[in-house]
Amino acid sequence: MDKNYDHKKFEDQIYKMWEDSGAFEPTGKGEQFSILMPPPNANDPLHVGHAMFVAIEDILIRYHRMKGDSTLWLPGTDHAGIETQFVFEKKLAKIGKSRFDFDRDTLYKMIWDYVQENSTVAVDQMKKLGASADWSKYKFTLDPDIVDQVIETFIKLNVDGLVYRSVRLVNYCTKCGTGYSELEVDYQEKEDKLYFINYGPLEVATTRPETIFGDVAVAVNPNDKRYLKLIGEEISLPLTSRKIKIISDKEVDIKFGTGAVKITPSCDSFDWDICDRQGWDTAQLAQDFPVKNRNEKAREKTILDLGNLVTKVESFTHNVGACYRCQRVIEKIPLKQLFIKVRPLAEKALKALDNKETVIFGAGREKILRHWLENLKDWNISRQITWGIRIPVWYKDGEMKVSRECPGEGWIQDNDTFDTWFSSGQWPIVALPKEFYPSSVMETGYDILPFWVMRMMMLGIYMTGKSPFKQVYLHGLIRDEQGRKMSKSIGNVINPLDMVNKYGADALRMALVMSSTPGQDKAVGESAIRGMRNFSNKIWNAARFIQSMADTQEGDKDQELVENLNESIRIMSERLEKLEIGWAAEWIYSWFWHAFCDRYIEIAKSGHISKKVMIMALETNLKLLHPFMPFVTEVIWQELGHKDLLITNTWPKY
Fold first, then answer.
1. Kind plus residue range of the DSSP H or E element containing 245
2. CATH number 3.40.50.720 given to 178-323
């Protein structure tokens, strides 16, 4: 063996050896174990969060493969809808173009070609991290068979009466030019001004006086004694010739502002719901105030025109919705969109949680999931973008038909595409071979629990009658050494591929999972990764020493080492079965460094442990370490003269 372990010398050739051997395919004869990879954006480089999911999932896959289970890790990538189109539009802007310069088919083809040119980026980088996925079964969310199944699900939903088209107030980004569901709005705390405006017999408080022209009423709480005599009265709306009524609604907050709120259903979901409860034609009311009149200039002019009717201005902190892609303030606008009735789907997902058909790993995360399922509103699945699966809905003379093909002359297809989460929400049922459904573990970041996990449960149960996964392991966000969120502006972002090049994939993987806990964020810095590189060297040097030992007879400490080694096998096996991955990583690190090396190698130097037992112990340790640090352990296994591969070797028994 070389004096030092050089990861750059070995990692690529070891990975090729694994891949060429067919080791990643599910050939085991034991129980079925499967994980469906959360599909990263096909053409985006990986960030440290992706490295975390690769590390955790690969640990579980390698462990179950060594156990002899029929083990499948199915990989794939996502077309990523608005995210990919947003990136492509920035590319167009650099050459002075925009999406509006091209017809739909041309723009789609341009984005398709762009994605294909860069489609191996994510896959190549996952291989660098050691991902032992079955690449022969790789899926892309725009594969024809997947598109076909996604459309089939939509057709079934329509047949079952769970699809409808309606004018509703939706979240809309004026820059990206598309509507979003509530889950895709990034709420941020913002300091604003609260304007108090004289409406005659009462004052209202609002952060957006420019929307006064869309007012249809003023609402007060029926229990607010200040306004009881005013309920039902008509008042003149400032700056207009219109008359509006003072109405009552129990949801009005008596303590906010003046306790009287202007009702503008074209701009606010709260106001829309109040109008709904009044029995008014909400959709018609909401059409009367265009989005172009909602901006800072309109606000300034309105305040100027109101003059003395603005009685007071206060500072006010509140949550404002922003587009999760471009951070533009989200507007609420009335749009005719396609919706899915989610209540029947959510109830079945809740039942799956109740009967433990699906178990959530992550402190407090099941409670969050239940909250979303219990309060979920109907799902707006229409997106006003080109890139994605076009909705198979056709219109003619006010009639709507759902069909794969044009129903006949005069029918026009909907221009919208499905929400990306509608297709990725079907990932288990469209990607997994039937014999591996439901999957054993779904592993992903807790931040997409409501976006993705919830929707996979709803659609998976709806289409198959079974929850799509038995266990959900939610890893936390990776933060810097000071616990801060990683940000380009701060300059604390860790590039996983830079770390792999510098310290090796094993070091990065071990640093990420060491002492991690599902559902909790983890602080990781370069010093931690460097420390795990030192651990790789420790394993290497231990192997070099044992290989160089002189042959000895039975030592008086042989049995002690064997007993303690068996205890480590038991602990590692139990921890991995219980998905206690961070705990298992911590144990094997401590056992190998402080017990095996610091104690037993020192004893072996004195001749009290035989070489035969030390070789056996080393090989057992390599097996225990392999899921966590696959490259260095495989290299040492080969250096020890084995003709087989460690990746397909047998997990040790105790």
1. strand 243-248
2. no
